Every structure is written in C-alpha cells, then in structure tokens.
Amino acid sequence: LSENGQRAFADLGRCLQSQGKEKVLDVFYLIDESGSLQGTDSEKKRAEILSSSLIQLASFRKDVTVNYSVGFFAHEYAVWKSWTTVNQGGIVSEAAKLDAEVRKRDQGDWTDWLKGINGAITELNAQHERTNGCSTLIWLTDGGIELETVDQTIDAIEQLCTNRFDVLRKNNVTVLGI
C-alpha cells in the first residue's frame, strides 16, 4: 500500500477501536461504468478485484458487523445493491453476482465523478444515520473525469475539490481509490 493507503487503513482502525462493543463497518463500492473502460480494462480485471475484495470483507474481524452497498456511475448514477450485511456463508455467491454485473458495465457515456461522489455521499450519510458505523468508500475509476463540455468538466472538478471531498473528510469517510 502507498503511504496514503496505510494512513487510510490506520484511520479506519482507529474508528473501529473507538466504537466499543457494537463495531460496524459500512463499505460503499462506487464503480465507474463508462465506455472508456473498454480500452483501459479490456480484460475486465476490475470485476475480479472487486469481487475478491467483497469476499475479503467476510473475513473481517468477527467482532465487527460489515455492511456493503454498490453503486455505478458514468453519465448517470444508480445504486445496484442496497445495503446488505455481509454473511460469510453467502458471500461467494454475492461476489459472483458482483463480478458478473461489473463485467457487463462498460457502456456509459462520459465519466461524471461528481454524480458518483454525490450519490456515494448520500448513501454513506443515510447508512451512518442507521448504524453509526465507520464509513468506507471504495471508488473504482479508470482515472478520467470527462463530461460533455470542458466547462462542465471544470465546474465538476472545482465542486469536487472545494466541497465534496471536504464533506467526505468531515464525515470521517475512509476513501480508497482504485
């Protein structure tokens, strides 16, 4: 892991330690489904990475309840899998469903990070209200924000940098970008 990645996991560990007996980890997967993935991930490695990470959640500490949800974004944003508690006995089939869904999701127009991040913030805030858990955002994108016009792209970047990422930080959301 990079130095930032190590810091993110340390922050998450501190959050879990501060929770007392009822430890909860809420993980939101925000997954890029833009058409550019046909070129940047033609072998669909992202499907294997994400399904493997979901399986790893089932091996998390036994004293922690782990919940997850999945959203996709490109020119639009939508939740694909609503919040679900990880069940070790059923996680392999859940991971296979995620793998299959990710493999077919690379047809979106544009790459609207702002829509995706706004959707993730809404989901994580609502879940935090329900569970008071430690929030983690796993954000997978091929690295390019691209909207229909240059002005839209510049405006979205400004909003992300001056507001939306600050909201995630203030809400103590651990962000892992892939």
Which sequence of SSEs, written as H and E, runs from N to C? Answer: HEHHEEHHEHE
Query: Mind describing the biggest β-sheet?
Result: 5 strands, mixed
* Chain-averaged pLDDT: 89
Shape: globular
What is the radius of gyration?
Answer: 16 Å
Helix content: 40-55%
**Which consecutive residue ranges, at least 5 long each, have pLDDT under 50?**
none
Give the arrangement of secondary structure elements.
Layout: H1 3-17, E1 23-32, H2 37-40, H3 45-57, E2 64-73, E3 77-85, H4 91-103, H5 113-131, E4 134-140, H6 150-170, E5 174-177
Parallel strand pairs: 1-2, 1-4, 4-5
Antiparallel strand pairs: 2-3
Report on the structure:
The longest helix has 21 residues. The chain is built from six helices and five strands; from the N terminus they run αβααββααβαβ. It is an alpha/beta fold and 178 residues long. The protein has a five-stranded mixed sheet with strand order 3-2-1-4-5, sandwiched between helices. 48% of the residues lie in helices and 22% in strands. A hairpin with a 3-residue loop joins strand 2 and strand 3.
Please give a quick description of this structure.
This protein has helices spanning 3-17, 37-40, 45-57, 91-103, 113-131, 150-170, and strands at residues 23-32, 64-73, 77-85, 134-140, 174-177. By secondary structure, the chain is α/β, with parallel strands linked by helices. The mean pLDDT is 89.
Describe the structure using short key phrases.
6 helices, single chain, 178 residues, globular, five-stranded mixed beta sheet, 5 strands, alpha/beta, 48% helix
